[in-house]
Amino acid sequence: MAAAASGPLTTDGLVQLLTPEGRRVSHPAYDHLVAHLDADALRAMYRDMVIVRRFDTEATALQRQGELALFAQALGQEGAQIGSGHALLPQDHVFPSYREHGVAHTRGVDLADVLRLFRGIDHGGWDPVAHGFHLYTLVIGSHTLHATGYAMGVQRDGAVGTGDPTRDTAVVAYFGDGATSQGDVSEALVFAAVNEAPVVFFCQNNQWAISEPTTNQSTVPLADRAPGFGIPSVRVDGNDVLASYAVTQEALQRARSGGGPTFIEAFTYRMGAHTTSDDPSRYRSAEQEDYWRRRDPIDRLRAYLESLGELPTSFLDQLDAEADDLGERIRTTVRAMGRPSPASMFEHVYATPHSVVDAERAWFEGYESSFLDGKHGDGRHGEGAHHAAGQQTRDGSHR
Predict the structure, then answer these.
(1) Has keyword Lipid biosynthesis (predicted)?
(2) Does 206 share its domain with 85?
């Protein structure tokens, strides 16, 4: 499958420091941003990608076993996420969508806690302030506005452009190619540009908004949209962890110093399904999947480290054992989570008591109590409860 010569899938102009074969290539604008990364730093990136992929595999298996209601894979996008995540400083703040497991890992979020959302235990599972990593956002594109507003707040707090590396702060919003078709993203770009907000828009263009290809969303590379708002942009090979680190480092430095927003398009590929309820074989070919499998971000960095003689067997053996331990812990933790009370859905909707929520909770509790405690031998609820659950008025509303 040849790369597109033009349009949103073109590979022309992509920043790349590692070829798909794992060969280091020079880039005059970005080499200096990775010059300090020694073998230990590269192995740390490799480790994180391997660990996150093992998490992905375990979570997918747990969903297939009925332990999770749903799961969104990050398979194939580890390079973009780990590379950009390693560029963040502790005071930076991230607004993810729902596939940023790799970034969550780099921010110190326990990957088992990520699955509390997908099991339906709660709305997140971690403290956003403690990790500088907000809760997952399921409403496509809406969090780009949240990130921009947060960045404007950081700016007004005087935490930008001070010259103090422990104080100057940047904000990153992660989203997919499909989100760029949402109005919220355009609005966020407007506010970020006119306010010179310290925010980085990190678009992981994995080429599919569920089953809708990027070619049905744009006629030009997605990064080309940002200059129309007055925001500089860059396209990077998202399967190259080094290049992803470099372009994010540059954008973060610009944001922290008061230089305003940047739009990054990480051109990558979603090797798995959109979610575990999706079947990608219905809308894309095995040939395309094989093409991108040969560009696996983990294999790429491994080949580079092996060429340097910096991937000893002892490290790989230890990493395999760590991944196995993670898999066991993920399985044990998820199965021990239990089930939340149905009424817990009314908790934490608002920060203070709310009359509408209180009324809905009261109705729900009354509805629940209308069911009989026991069941008939055929597994059905009692007739009275069945009648109460299904009784409707003429206008269709439940009584």
Answers:
(1) no
(2) yes
Indicate if 270 belongs to the active site: yes
Q: Based on the domain organization, do 251 and 132 belong to the same domain?
A: yes
227-270: per-residue pLDDT in tens? Answer: 999 999 999 999 999 999 999 999 999 999 999 999 999 999 99
Answer yes or no: is 10 within a domain.
Answer: no
Asked whether residue 22 is domain-assigned, the answer is no
Q: Do 54 and 71 fall into the same domain?
A: yes
Among candidate residues 283, 335, 376, 387, the one labeled active-site is 283
Look up 274 and say whether it is catalytic: yes
Q: Does residue 283 have an active-site annotation? A: yes
- CATH code of the domain in which 48 resides: 3.40.50.970
Catalytic residue chosen out of the listed positions 86, 119, 270, 295: 270
Helix/strand/coil (H/E/C) assignment for every residue in the chain: CCCECCCCCECCCCECCECCCCCECCCCCCHHHHCCCCHHHHHHHHHHHHHHHHHHHHHHHHHHCCCCCCCCCCCCCHHHHHHHHHCCCCCCEEECCCCCHHHHHHCCCCHHHHHHHHHCCCCCCCCHHHHCECCCCCCCCHHHHHHHHHHHHHHHCCCCCCCCCCCCCCEEEEEEHHHHHCHHHHHHHHHHHHHCCCEEEEEEECCEECCEEHHHCCCCCHHHHHHHHCCCEEEEECCCHHHHHHHHHHHHHHHHCCCCCEEEEEECCCCCCCCCCCCHHHCCCHHHHHHHHCCCHHHHHHHHHHHHCCCCHHHHHHHHHHHHHHHHHHHHHHHCCCCCCHHHHHCCCCCCCCHHHHHHHHHHHHHHHCCCCCECCCCCECHHHHHHHHCECCCCCEC
